[in-house]
Design goal:
single chain, about 100 residues, alpha+beta, Nucleotide Exchange Factor Grpe, Chain A, domain 2, 3-stranded antiparallel sheet, 3-stranded mixed sheet, about 35% helix, GrpE, chaperone, protein-folding chaperone binding, GrpE protein
Length: about 100
């Protein structure tokens, strides 16, 4: 019972930290929150340069490119995702390169 309560409290604290992180205006506050979360196994996910995979990334938009080698790669992360000890908490929202028409 105590272990279940501790896990529920941990999830609640992580949720509050992610809520605060999403609303933080200061880069220093964001960095400190991410550092604190990392200390307990929660890691930010910024897959810039990786191949877009709709199973693990959420497309927030596209960026045109003339370079065919970039098509389908992630140009930038709009909102970082997070994992807790390897388990996805939230998918990152990303901008994906697309070929220019």
């Amino acid at each position: 019972m105590e272990a279940e309560q501790a896990l529920a409290e941990r999830r609640a604290l992580i949720g509050m930290c992610l809520y605060a992180l999403d609303r933080a205006r200061s880069a220093g506050v964001v960095a400190r929150l991410e550092q604190g979360l990392a200390e307990v196994g929660v890691r930010a996910v910024r897959p810039d340069g990786e191949r877009f995979d709709p199973a693990v990334h959420e497309a927030g938009g596209t960026a045109p490119t003339d370079d065919p080698a970039l098509v389908g790669l992630i140009a930038e992360t709009e909102v970082p995702g997070f994992t807790d000890r390897g388990q996805s908490l939230r998918a990152p929202i990303v901008i994906v390169y697309v070929g220019q028409s």
